[in-house]
TrEMBL record:
Annotated Metallo-beta-lactamase domain residues: 24-236
Name of the protein: MBL fold metallo-hydrolase
Top-level lineage group: Bacteria
SMART domains: Lactamase_B
Amino acid sequence: MEWSDWFRTRPVARGVWLVAEPGHVNSWLVEGADRAVLVDSGLGMVPIRPVVEALTDRPVDVVHTHAHVDHVGGDAEFERVAIHPAGAATLRAGTDPAERRRYLAYARRLLDAAPAYRALDAEFFHLLSADADPRPLPDGVDGTWAPGPAPEPDPLVDGDVVDLGGRALRVLHTPGHTPDSLCFLDEHAGLLFAGDTVNTGPIYAQAPEADLDAFAASTARLAALADDVHLVLMCHFGRGVAEGAYLRDVADAFAALRAGEVVLRPARDCDDDPVREAVFDACSIYLSS
C-alpha cells in the first residue's frame, strides 16, 4: 500500500502538520528552524517516515504522548524517540500480538459500519471529513503488522523543553489516561498537543492503568491554560482540532464526574470490552464497568 492511500496529511498551523491514519489515530509533525519532531508515530501498519520526509527536510525525532500501541508503532523507523520514564518499560517490551488482534477486530467493525455512516452523513449531517473517513486496511495486515523494536528512549519529564530551533515545546506531565501521559505546549504559537488526555469523542479512563483522580487534576491543569491556547490538537475521533476553550469543557466534565453529578450508561470500548459511559455536551468519558 502506498502511504498516500493510508495517511491523510494537511498543514494546521505554521510548521505543523496533521499526519492522520483516518478513523484510527493522529500524529503531529512539528518543525523548527533546526529540526522537527513527530508527536507519536502511529500504528505502524504502513511506514510513517516517508510521510514525514515528504513534509519536511529537517531531521526528525519522535516524542511520545504515551506508550499505547496506536501511538508508538512507527518508532523503529527513527533513530531517536523520547517518552516519560513511566512509559519506558512498556515501550521496550514492544506491542502485544493479542492487543494487535483485538485492534484489528475493532478496525474491521469500524469499516463495516462506515458505509451506512457515510450515507447518513452525506444526506443529513455533513460532518465527515477526509481527516476521519476510514480507509481500507492494508492487504495482509494480520501477518505484516508487527512493529519493530523502538530505539532506547530518552526521558521526558514535566518542565522539559524540546528545542527545535526558533520553536520550543514545553513538556507537561498529565497522568490519568496512563501514568506516562504527556502533553506538549508550544507557548509562542498557542498550540497544545494533547495526546489522549483530551479528545472530542470518548475519553478513555477505563483501563487498569488509568487513574480518575489524576485525570481530573491533569485536565484542570490544562484548563488553566485555556486562555493562552489557540488550538488543541488531539489524537482521535472526527474532530481532531478544537479551540482552547474546549480544555475547560473537558475539565468541567471530569469535575462533574468526580462529584457524582452524572448518569452512567453502558457502552463498549475499542477492545469490545463493556464500560460505563458518562456523557456530556462536549465529550464523554469511559469508566470501567
